[in-house]
Here is the input.
Amino acid sequence: QSALTQPASVSGSPGQSITISCTGTSSDVGGYKSVSWYQQHPGNAPKLMIYEVIKRPSGISDRFSGSKSGNTASLTISGLQAEDEADYYCCSYAAGNTHNYVFGTGTKVTVL
Amino acid sequence: EVQLLESGGGLVPGGSLRLSCAASGFTFSSSAMTWVRQAPGKGLEWVSTISSSGAATYYADSVKGRFIISRDNSKNTLYLHMNNLRAEDTALYYCAKDSNSWVNWGQGTLVTVSS
Here is the structure.
């Protein structure tokens, strides 16, 4: 199972909105509603930001939103803040012989 | 408060290693559990998931046949038995609660495989 494709880096100024894409296939992103997004600051464990494509866990700011179209999922961060600077990973359930998950390649978000 | 504490990592010249993940703050026996790893400077990789009872186990192709996930619900502990270790298994290994959409993670235990 190949990793999902994300841009290596995305940047924006404080207050702006940015969108991170996550491209897979009909066997993963396109075929299931089980797409999630994780934020990871250096030295820390990943943090769930979005699950089931569009849902936010309790305590996650509504500045973070998810969507999906075809084989591509997206994470949008609006009102960009300095603390949003981190690595972001998408993850999707993937069809196969067994229960299987695949992560994206990761995107470094830089706040200018 | 959910707490997950991994242990057992270290520097190994190949061979085998067993990782543990001690869980607290939730009903361990009701939750599927997952291992995810991250090679130094690299991205996240799903490794394995086990059902709440332990009856069902799932593995990434990269570790299938070499790693075994197990659990002891009486000890609230998750395990990852790693055999035939390779240099590419060098990573920080995280345990996470549930089978998907992982809200709760440990801080990880580092496994370094040296040839």
Chain B touches chain A at residues 36, 43-46, 49, 56, 58-61, 94, 99-103, 105-108 (CB under 8 Å). Chain B has a mean pLDDT of 95. The first strand of chain B starts at residue 3 and ends at 7. Chain B has no helices and ten strands.
